[in-house]
Amino acid sequence: MATTQQPSTKQDILHHLLKQGQATAQELAEHLKLSPQAIRRHLKDLEAEGLILHEVVHVSMGRPNHVYKLSRQGRDRFPDRYEEFALSLLDTLTETVGREQVGVLLQKQWERKAAEYRDRVGSGSLQERVANLVELRRAEGYMAEWHSVAATEAQSVSTQSDQAERYVVTEYNCAISHIAESFPSVCGHELEMFAAALPGCTVERTHWIVNGEHRCGYLIQTKAAVGN
């Protein structure tokens, strides 16, 4: 029984850190309903394996807290869709035809992907289309989710103040993170792709893994809302 529980608990810890960005042992214990002592044993093992790291956060009173987060190696445990091969191929193309031409090729690829997404998300309500888009991203190796946003919450990530239907899509891992680091233009193409896949909408980036954040976030709203 113990041999099957340990890997499962460790995986649960990795998933929680991926989704939340960071957590203390106490927070993990409360979330997974285990004792802090048991959680610390798992954290010690995961840190020894190089999958997580910690930093000491000093508080006003009491002992300093140890805050845990995924290491680069820990993030690499999640699906990356043959990213190493793709990056090597792009590097070879850059050496052969030049970075500008590679940019043109990437643009064509994202346009093709946008057309595929648009066909597959359907023509239902905006909520239905956003939900379908998230399912497509999950199938491609992204840990993605979506939620609707109240007007007051939307204002914290957008300059718009009007009432409108808005949704936030969050992706806690990037299936092309290594490519994005070497070819950051792909992230701009991704925004264009989402907007093209959801006609009548604008897409605004709210969080970005490439900037050191633990997730990528996108605010999706109707163009009518932006124009008011």
Automatic annotation (TrEMBL):
Q: Which InterPro entries match?
A: ArsR-like_HTH, SUF_FeS_clus_asmb_SufR_cyano, WH-like_DNA-bd_sf, WH_DNA-bd_sf
- Can you tell me which residues the record assigns to a coiled coil? none
**Name listed for the protein in its UniProt record:** Iron-sulfur cluster biosynthesis transcriptional regulator SufR
Top-rank taxon: Bacteria
